[in-house]
Each structure stands twice: as C-alpha cells, then as structure tokens.
Design goal:
The complex is a heterodimer of chains A (about 230) and B (about 240). By secondary structure, chain A is mainly alpha-helical. Chain A has one domain. Helices cover about 85% and strands about 0% of the residues of chain A. Chain A has nine helices and no strands. Chain B is globular and about 60 Å long. In chain B, helix 3 runs antiparallel to helix 4, helix 4 packs antiparallel against helix 7 and helix 5 packs antiparallel against helix 6. Chain B has eight helices and no strands. Chain B has one domain. Classes of the chains: A mainly alpha (about 230), B mainly alpha (about 240). Chains A and B meet through helix 7, helix 8 and helix 9 of A and helix 5 and helix 6 of B.
C-alpha cells in the first residue's frame, strides 16, 4: 500500500477553501441575511431619532449609510473564524502545506462576497429611504463595495486576534473600529463629493489604494494572529 | 557582538544596570521638570494674543510628543519581541502602554482646557485632536487585548501584532483625518526649521520636553525593573535578592 499525500498546488487549495466557505455559509443563510437586516434596522432608527425631515436626512445620509454599513460588517466579523476554531478546522488550515496568508485571504474574500457586496448592493435602496440626492447612488454602491473589502481585511486581523477568547465580541470592536476610520472618511467623502457634483475619481482611487495596502499587509497579520490565538 | 547583546537584554543584567541608572535619571527628570516649570510659568513672557493661557503649551506639547514616541517605542519593542523573542522587549512594551495612554489623555485634556480661552469651546473635531483621540483608543485596545488572554505569552504576542498594525495605521489615520478637516495650528517644533516663537518662549519648552523624556525614561526603568521581579519571581537570583536564599 502506498501512502498518497494529498498535496495540491496553491490554486487547488484556494479553490477548495473558497468552495468550502461558500458551501458552509450558504447552508446557514440566516447568517448572511442578519447583517443586511441589521443595516436596514439601524438606518430605520435614524429618522426616528433625528427627524423625518427629508432635507435634514439628505444632508447626513452619506455618513449614516457608511457608519451603519461599517457596523454591520463589524458585527459579522466575529463569526469569521469562530466556527472553524470551535470545530477544529482552523487548526487544519494552519497545518496545510500551502501558505497560510493565501488561505486566509480566500476566507476573507468569501466573507466580503457574502457581507460587503450585499451591503453595497442594498445601500442605494436604504439611501432612498434617507432621500439621498440623486446622482450619488452609484458612487455609494461602488465606494461601499471597495471600502467593505478593506473593512473585511482589517477586521479579520481583529477577528483572528480574538478568536481564542471566549467572549471577544466587544473587544473586537474596540480593536477594529479605530482602524476603520480612514476607510470611513474616504468612503463617506466620496458620496459627499458626488452629491456636491465634484470629481469622485480621486476619492475612489484613495479607497482603492487603501484596499491595495490592506491586501498586501493584512493577510500576513491575520496569519500571524491566528497562529498566536491557536497556540495560547 | 551577539552574545554581548544577549547578555545586555537578559532581565538580570537590565535589572542591575537599570538600578545604577535610575537615580541619575530621576535627578535629571526632577531637575529639568522643576527648572522648566518655574521658567515656563513665571519667567517666560506672556503671549501677546493669548495672554497667560498659552502656558498650557508647556505641558500640552511635551505630552503630545511623548504620547507618539511611546507608541513608536511600543511598536519597536513589539517587533523585537516577535522576531527575536526577547522577553525584556515585551516587558518594556507592557509598561510603556499605560504610560503612553496617560500621556495621550494628558495631551487631549490640556488641549481641551486650552481650547476654552483660545477657541471658545472644549472640543472641536479638528484633525489633530481627532487623531489623538483615535490614538487613545488604539492604546486602550492594545492594553485590553493584552489583558484578555489567560496566557501571558499569547497576550504579549497578540498585543505586539496589534501594535504593529496600529503603527502602520497611525500615519494613514493622521493624513486621512487631516484631509478631512483642519483648523489646528501647524506643529510648534520642527527639526529642520528655527521655531517661530522667540527664544525665551521655546527654550523653556525644550527644557520641559527633555524633562518629560527624562521622567519617562526614569519611570520606564523603574517599572520595567518591577516587571522583571514580578515575572522572574521564580528565578533563583530574584529569590536571593528577596532574601529567601
């Protein structure tokens, strides 16, 4: 009998990781929908708490939408590694012969696909509720799509650092929210500029730059954090 | 060379050297802070626009500079700890964090008090105030993360990773917040240009700045030595020191 070592290339491993993540997530559809419902609920609270006056709401809509989307992403983060940690498959991920940063990147990509992208698609609808001025809906969706990818990457560092802790939820927010600020500034800024009729390209370019930087550095930090969390 | 470095960073050697340095550091700190305070509060001329309220500067600016230096020191110590697993580096990072957070708070608070007579308000969402506030949150995050782990080594390494992530982010946060809104006056001190203030105003500031640094150094040595004793309490040299033989 010959022992066959299942040692695929990096691409095979990446495809397998993405497929596994997608399968698992699609079996628990509630967890995909929850952030979206949360997003809609928070946006509903603002007119109730501030004023139903369309003009006042329109003035603050970009910021409200962005902050609410950011919090929705943030809340979904704790589950990113939690399930894998609890059933032991995170250890298998660490033991895999393929580089860990690439594998976690695949996980984060799926997280964005199922959280950030739906939030970006849903944001224009909620913008309608806040009477967001016409002409900024496209920019809102694009800025959220770009920005939420950075949010997923940065947030995954925090999720990886706190996955070993029994109750890491609030701590996770404490760690991650300060790091979200540049993304929030440029994301909400892009929408504001679109409303004022300015050129949004530089703002979206800055969001893209943040994403490029996060793509380059975050996977290493996530991998290091996961190793620390599992050794403790 | 390497063995020398290793000997130097062993907690025991640091404890001995630090013990000898400590009195000198305290004397320097108290002298500088004493001289600086008297000079700044009594002899420096009042500002022609702001009057005496500008004297808050002599606490505010050193605290703000030191708060940033502390984060940098924490990041360097964290990197050294992660790469070379030098325990002393982590002890330094651990005792720097609360001090840095305190200095950030002092800078924010003194700035706030200063804001009342100059800007007419306790708080404005100005770029530098905001990035200082965010830095305070980063400090709190690092301290909280370290404390959340049951195992000290995991907590130390997690805090180091977070510090490094934070130190990469601080310039990004700083510049993004600056683009977002700016109203604060430009930096008081730059290394390349002569200060715009008259010498009798900035000289006491320089003395105060040195005093703050000396105070930090003295406190750092003292608290690191305490930390060494706490963490190495099972080692024989510590037990001998405590007279337990």
């Amino acid at each position: 009998m010959r022992l066959v070592e299942p040692r695929g290339g990096l691409v095979v491993a990446l495809v397998a990781t993405v497929r596994r993540e997608l399968t698992l997530s699609l079996r628990r559809r509630g967890e995909i929908i929850n952030p979206l419902v949360f997003f809609a609920l928070v946006i509903t609270l603002f007119p109730l708490g501030i004023s139903p006056d369309p003009e006042r709401l329109a003035a603050i809509a970009p910021g409200l939408l962005w902050v609410a989307a950011l919090l929705a992403t943030q809340l979904s983060l704790d589950a990113l590694f939690r399930g894998d940690h609890d059933d032991g498959s995170l250890e298998q991920l660490l033991l895999a012969p393929q580089p860990l940063p690439a594998l976690v990147l695949a996980k984060v990509a799926v997280h964005w696909l199922l959280t950030g992208a739906p939030l970006a698609l849903m944001a224009p609808l909620l913008g309608l509720f806040l009477s967001l001025p016409a002409g900024s809906y496209g920019v809102l969706a694009i800025s959220l799509a770009l920005g939420s990818a950075s949010l997923s990457l940065i947030g995954a560092i925090g999720a990886a650092l706190t996955v070993g802790l029994a109750r890491g939820g609030v701590l996770l927010s404490l760690l991650v929210l300060p790091l979200y600020i540049p993304v929030l500034i440029f994301g909400a800024g892009a929408v504001q500029v679109a409303i004022l009729g300015g050129d949004v390209a530089p703002w979206l370019a800055l969001l893209g730059a943040l994403l490029a930087l996060a793509l380059m550095l975050a996977p290493w930090a996530i991998a290091a954090a996961l190793r620390i969390s599992l050794n403790g | 060379m390497w063995s020398f470095v290793h000997k130097l960073v062993s907690p025991r050697t640091f404890y001995a050297i630090g013990g000898r340095l400590q009195p000198a550091l305290w004397v320097a700190a108290l002298t500088l802070l004493g001289t600086g305070s008297v000079w700044a509060l009594l002899f420096a001329p009042a500002d022609y626009q702001q009057g005496d309220s500008f004297r808050i500067l002599y606490v505010h600016v050193p605290a703000a500079i030191l708060a940033q230096s502390c984060f940098l020191l924490m990041a360097v110590a964290g990197l050294v700890f992660l790469v070379w697993k030098i325990k002393l580096a982590d002890m330094v990072a651990a005792v720097t964090a609360p001090f840095g957070a305190t200095m950030t708070f002092v800078a924010l608070f003194s700035g706030s008090v200063w804001g009342v007579p100059t800007w007419g308000t306790w708080w404005v969402w100005d770029a530098r105030l905001t990035s200082m506030l965010i830095q305070l949150f980063l400090y709190v995050g690092v301290i909280a993360l370290r404390g959340a782990f049951a195992s000290r080594d995991s907590g130390a390494r997690a805090a180091s990773v977070l510090t490094l992530v934070g130190v990469v982010n601080i310039p990004i946060i700083k510049y993004s917040v600056e683009w977002w809104n700016t109203l604060h006056q430009p930096a008081t001190f730059t290394l390349t240009e002569r200060p715009a203030m008259p010498a009798e105003m900035w000289l006491p500031l320089a003395v105060m700045l040195l005093g703050f640094y000396a105070f930090f150094a003295a406190l750092l040595v003292m608290r690191t030595r305490n930390e060494i004793l706490r963490r190495e309490s099972a080692k024989r040299w510590v037990r001998e020191l405590a007279g337990e033989g």
